[in-house]
Amino acid sequence: MGTYSMVLSKAAFFRRKYLDLYASQMPTSIHDYVTTERNCEDIAMSLLVANTTSAPPIWVKGKIYEIGSSEISSLKGYNDKRNKCLKDSISLYGTMPLVSTNLKAVDARSQWFW
Predict the structure, then answer these.
(1) Which residues contact 41 (CB under 8 A, 6 or more apart)?
(2) pLDDT one-digit tens code per residue, 92-108
(3) Are 7 and 50 in contact (CB under 8 A)?
(4) CATH of region 9-102
(5) Rounded distance, CA 52 to CA 93, Å?
(6) Which residue among the candidates 20, 32, 42, 80 is catalytic per the annotation?
(7) Could you state, in order of their start, the residue ranges of all structural domains in the chain?
(8) For this structure, is 42 an active site residue?
(9) Measured over all CA atoms, what is the biggest interatomic distance in the chain, rounded to whole angstroms?
């Protein structure tokens, strides 16, 4: 349906202040979870930014080129692990601040909207 409430950190750009907030104000329990799981930093960042701004992310059309030799998302059990990560992170964060949207920013020079 094109609705989303977060973006992967490898495909995101945001203000530096969110990195500072992530390092200084993110609950320790979430930092510990990310370190232990070696995953979920993008979910933690999405929760932080949504909680700080009360706004959804903005999807900007672009191309991402994978330069790694394997795709983590193709591993067995990946979706279950990510779903658990989201549930655990929301529980540790203490709230569900993600805001859904279907807003998309595209280059209007090459796209028709009607």
Answers:
(1) 9, 34
(2) 989 999 999 998 887 77
(3) no
(4) 3.90.550.10
(5) 12
(6) 42
(7) 9-102
(8) yes
(9) 47
Cα distance between residue 30 and residue 106, in whole Å: 34
Measured at the CA of 57, the angle between CA 73 and CA 36, to 5 degrees, comes to 45
The answer to whether 45 and 18 have CB atoms below 8 angstroms apart is: yes
Per-residue pLDDT tens digits for 47-64: 999 999 999 998 887 777
Give bridge partners of residue 104 from the DSSP assignment. Answer: 59
Cα–Cα distance for residue pair 17/41, rounded to 1 Å: 16
Q: What pTM, to 2 d.p., does this model score? A: 0.79
Query: Among candidates 56, 36, 38, which has minimal Cα distance to 46?
Result: 56
